[in-house]
Amino acid sequence: MKPIKIILSLFAITFIVSCSITTNYKMVTTLDRNGNVHREIYALDTKTGEDTSKNPFLFEFDSSWQIHRFDTVIKYNFIGEKREFNVKISKNTNSIEQYSQKIQCNKHNQSFAAPEESLVKKFKWFYTYYSFKAVYKNLKYEVPIPISDYLNEEEQLIWTQGYMNNFKVMNGYEMKDYLDEINKKFWKWQGHNYFEISFESIKKLTTGYDLEIDKENIYAKIYEAEVGAFDISPETVCSFIDSFYKTTYFSQLYKTNEEVLKNNFETSTSTPMDCMGNAISYELVIPDKLIKTNAPIIASDTLIWKIDGMRLLFNDYSLSAEYRVTNKWAFILFDLVVIAAIGSVFVLYREKLKNLIICKIKTTI
Questions:
Q1: How do residues 76-109 score in pLDDT, each as one tens digit?
Q2: How many CB atoms within 10 Å of residue 356?
Q3: How many domains does the chain have?
Q4: Is position 42 within any domain?
């Protein structure tokens, strides 16, 4: 089976060293009343002062972007955590779709750098309605054991994106039990993939044993022993295979090929390290009345989402908002029409009143 390309770095970063994620970006998208867009992206360039030619952003930007380097580091509240930025790029367009078109970036950054963004406009006389949507595609990787073997789609969304519909009728105690169950299945999925990676590496070096026949039984022994997911390495698997066959062959195999097994394991699981370390604070500034949104944070006219590797682990992550812009000219025109209509009625009534008075005067004479 083809070696997996994500598991080790994926979980090590997400759960063990999540607090040390350093590749943070702040992206501010400002929409004006006509649907024109101004975008600013902030980053921390650790090479500033040494090598300013290095690009600290997720994609290669051209001359249509303006770059500004700050004299001092800016500290920013990154959705509850303090982060630092010292460089910004900005650009104006008349269509939000233009930002994601022809993006050039590392394939592992594709999910973060090139979301599918759209802004649909509907004119309705007094108001113009806008529908914003941005879809960040899920990370692309290969695993020997798919997550669907352990978590259904709803459970995946709960665990990675905070899908809360299931919790509307639950109290805290019920929520805890429910999340604990998802947590167990999630870690079992991880451990099973660790086993598959280790097992396949060992099998390639084995002679005299048909390991494939007993693979599931060997995994069952490891699972029954409640070995921690991060401990299911080639060395651990060799030890359990020895126990299963009542031999020392596999421990010796590991000692003889330790460097090869370690390198194969680390190489096959280190590729997505960079993309799992990315986190974006996406801020959308709207020009008028908000109608609805799925943004978890609303601060005045600014809607805020967090995009990171965990949220893109199993599914696409969609940002959406609907707002309306008041067409002031339509109200002014309406007022003028009303005033003109009232004026016409008044003039007509005045003429009729005048004719009536003249008629009465003539009758009296």
A1: 888 788 889 999 999 999 999 888 777 888 777 8
A2: 10
A3: 3
A4: yes
Lowest mean per-residue pLDDT among 69-83, 272-286, 311-325 = 272-286
Over the chain, what is the mean pLDDT? 84
In a shared domain, residues 118 and 206: no
Residues 336 and 301 in one domain: no
Is residue 310, in this structure, part of any structural domain at all? yes
Q: Tell me which residue range forms the domain holding 339.
A: 328-365
Say whether both 211 and 72 belong to one domain: no
Helix axes 234-245, 249-256, angle to 10 degrees: 150
Angle in degrees, CA 277, 283, 285, rounded to 5: 170
Has residue 260 been placed in a domain?
yes
Range among 31-40, 122-131, 168-177 rated most confident:
31-40
Is 319 a residue whose pLDDT tops 50?
Answer: yes
In SS3 terms, 335-355 reads as: HHHHHHHHHHHHHHHHHHHHH
Instruction: For residue 99, give every residue at least 6 positions away whose Cβ sits within 8 Å of its Cβ, in sequence order, or none.
Output: 37, 39, 91, 93, 117
